[in-house]
What does this fold into?
Amino acid sequence: MKDFLQRKNIVISAKRYGIDALGAMAQGLFCSLLIGTIIKTLGQQLGLAFLVDMGGFATAMSAPAMAVAIGYALQAPPLVLFSLAAVGQAANAMGGAGGPLAVLFIAILAAEVGKAVSKETKVDLLVTPFVTIFTGVVLSYLIAPPIGKVADSFGTLINQTTMLQPFWMGITVSVLVGIALTLPISSAAICHTLSLVGLAGGAAVAGCCAQMVGFAVMSFRENRWGGLVSQGLGTSMLQMGNIVKNPRIWIPPTLASAITGPIATCLFRLEMNGDPINSGMGTCGLCGQIGVWTGWLAPSEAAVTKVGAVAVSPTALHWIGLLLICFILPAVLSVIFCEILRKIGWIKEGDLTLPQ
It folds into this structure.
């Protein structure tokens, strides 16, 4: 069995499934639902129907994109990889609110089964796609609905608990989602799966912004403008290699998220009522801010269902809160904490330098 698994490149490990597959799933989600949401929002605000349609086409393909991305991370052969598009569609449709989580589990299982039978028969062109799709669809019928219910219930619990305990949950959600954003996993997929909206969504946005803006600003002396843009509008995940070398560099943005989270939930009552995926995006393409803004004007279906969100006319206080939580406070706090750690020798010159 060990030789067979090795020959088929089936590696059963936490890294392969929990990091590689989940990280690829995030990229698939970004290249479909996320970028589609940005394009669609842009089209709506500019009154360009063509962009609205373009964004709609992209968002409609999120499930196949996630599944194919997972297959790519698992190094699936072509016939398995292409068959996963149907598997992703089935898992997402039957998983309901927990569709992305269902896609993750089912696409992994279907891909590995497909890899196991790939090129084992003389009619591989028929057998491999059939087995991959059959496995994925059957699993979708069996386990996608329960996965969806669990994810939906857990997300509802987080949303309701944050409304009841905005201070402590503001800290918890902000810190954990922010950490997930910097780790090689998908904070966007987590927020999308759990439908984090309302105050919980606002806390998540705060945590993600603290990580991205924090790392971008406090590493400016090492990485200059290129680093500022790549981390501030791209991802703080770029610092993961440096974090492994010196975990202490993670302290400043994480402390910043622990402060901005409860400020968002308790002081400004910042709610993210756009598409839940935006809760886990921070300043990446300004998606978190776009989500907050669109949530003010036209709450998403998830926000209406989960927290009873209604449209509001943003006031000066809304905009001040958004700017402070997403940009100003993360930058100021992270730099202050970083300078303290530099002075005591916990962070040294070059610790934050990005690889070229």
Observations:
- The CA atoms of residues 299 and 310 lie 6 Å apart.
- The longest helix spans residues 124-164.
- The mean pLDDT is 90.
